[in-house]
Amino acid sequence: MSRTKKLTLTAMIAALCLLCLAGSSLLPRVTLSLAALAGIFPAATVIVCGSGWAACGSAVAAALALLLLPDKTAGVWFACFFGHYPIWKALIEALQARLGKPWLGWLLKCLGFAACMLLLYLAFSGLFAAAIPYAFSEHSAGPFILAAALLAAFAVYDYAFSILITFFRVKILPKLH
């Protein structure tokens, strides 16, 4: 594929990401879901164009979301996790396939997710404190229960994401060529 086609595809996918993130201004109750939906599109860029193009497209979509959208929440989620997750998912799964150790891939993905969530928490701890139920903050095991619930949600997201990537490769990608 030529560089012009890769640039065009990357720009169109960045625009789709921005469109999904803009939906959070209209539907504020599904902000996290729309950020997760926007995070699916860079996977197509990773598959068709490569990780470098996907990183540029995700960075552009995140920057535009943080600059242009009135509600920055979806943009923050996209910039901090969902935008770059398809890139490191592809890299980790390639390493996992090369080494033949599936547990290593899950370990690296869970560590990456935990690092992203920790950075988000440290950057926006005041917002998290207001959103976390009082029972979690009062109970000594509360943070561990919350972390376990987040890791379980991440595992479900990763599994569903893998199914969508397989669908894209089998059903959609052959029609693009």
Describe the protein's architecture and organization.
With 177 residues, this protein is mainly α. The chain has one domain. The chain contains ten helices and no strands. Helix 2 (31-38) packs across helix 5 (73-82). The longest helix has 35 residues, at 142-176.
Which series of helices and strands comes N to C?
HHHHHHHHHH
Shape: globular
Tally of DSSP β-strands: 0
Assign the structural class, choosing from mainly alpha, mainly beta, alpha/beta, alpha+beta, or little secondary structure: mainly alpha
Tally of distinct domains: 1
Oligomer: single chain
The parts where pLDDT drops under 50 for at least 5 residues are none
Distance between the termini: 10 Å
Q: How much of the residues is beta strand, in percent? A: under 5%
What portion of residues is helical? over 70%
Rg on CA atoms, Å: 17 Å
**What's the pLDDT, averaged over the residues?**
88
Question: How would you characterize the largest beta sheet?
Answer: none
The total of helices stands at 10
Give a brief outline of the structure.
86% of the residues lie in helices and 0% in strands.
List keywords for this structure.
mainly alpha, single chain, globular, 177 residues
